[in-house]
Amino acid sequence: MTTADAYAAAIQLHEAFVPMTPDPGVSLAQARREAVAWLLAERGGGVEPAPAAGVEIDVQIRHLLTIRPPGGFPPRVQACLDQILQEQARARGSVTPGEVLAGPGAIAAVAGTPLKVWRGDITRLAVDAIVNAANAALLGCFRPGHACIDNAIHSAAGPRLREDCARIMEIQGHPERSGTAKITRGYHLPSRFVLHTVGPIVTGGRVEAGDERTLVSAYQACLELAAATPPIRSVAFCAISTGVFGYPKDHAADVAVRTVSRWLGERPKAFDLVVFCVFSDADERAYGQAMAAGGAEPVV
Asked: How many Å is the maximal CA-CA distance in the chain?
């Protein structure tokens, strides 16, 4: 298994991310024009699949970055992209740990533990680390507009995230195994780090014993890696494997709550806050029921 120590230097894991300073003479509108022009020129003037006519330029840039393989940019283009991504981050806003505990998205908590359920957009959480449900290539989703957490996180973080994942995969020399985890910086996300894990793929809604063991391992691997990274005191989990990977939501929520609760019970001082971030009505119901079964109380 490739440890974080083996790739930390290669991706500058412990260095604070500082976006490039935009040229004071370049407006946001000009940065958008230059970025999309360069990205289109890099592809020979075309984009596959092409955004529909009238699609706003930020969406077109997002599509072009989604389908682009890992690789750096000329400094001026990178500065333009940083300017665009910083503005998008400002527009999304961020949610602090205090707002997770008491804000409108707070759903349930286990008394005496750092475990909470919060409903909202994980790319807005200003916790120390968020968890990404990745695929075995670990490079993010290459389908423009695809509504998966992998795409959402890579789009918000920016293309440096894909570059870091590519470096890790090069060092590792093989696809990421299910139930393991890697860590990168978060770049334009409000979270400093991203934990990438590959959960089990369930077909036809039928969960095998090995699927549950792999899901347990994915949660444990993220917790162990976060705990081994000193700056991390708060972690937010997405609902691993419940999207395109097909793991039934109710079962996955039960596994998640049981696994994380057990881990925290053995290491009660490891974190100040651990969040299950839910997005849909079905996710909220599943985690609400799982937390209630584990002794959680609704947040009022």
From this structure: 59
Q: Beta-strand (E) ranges in the chain?
A: 106-109, 115-119, 129-133, 181-185, 193-197, 234-237, 273-278, 297-298
Q: Tens digit of pLDDT per residue, the chain (300 long)?
A: 789 999 999 999 999 999 999 889 999 999 999 999 999 999 986 544 445 444 589 999 999 999 999 999 999 999 999 999 999 999 999 999 988 887 777 777 777 789 999 999 999 999 999 999 999 999 999 999 999 999 999 999 999 999 999 999 999 999 999 999 999 999 999 999 999 999 999 988 899 989 999 999 999 999 999 999 999 999 999 999 998 899 999 999 999 999 999 999 999 999 999 999 999 999 999 999 999 887 555 443
Strand, helix or coil for residue 270: coil
Residues 6+ away with beta carbon under 8 Å from 272 = 97, 114, 233, 234
Residue 199 near residue 189 (C-beta atoms within 8 A): no
What are the extents of the domains in the chain?
94-298
Angstrom CA distances, 169 to 94, 136, 172, 189, 219, stand at 30, 10, 5, 22, 21
| CB neighbour list of residue 25: distance below 8 Å, 6 or more residues apart | none
pTM of the model: 0.93
Q: Is 5 helix (H, G, I), strand (E, B) or coil?
A: helix
Q: Are 42 and 13 in contact (CB under 8 A)?
A: no
Compute the distance between CA of residue 58 and CA of residue 103 in angstroms, rounded to an integer.
30
Domain 94-298 grouped into CATH 3.40.220.10: yes
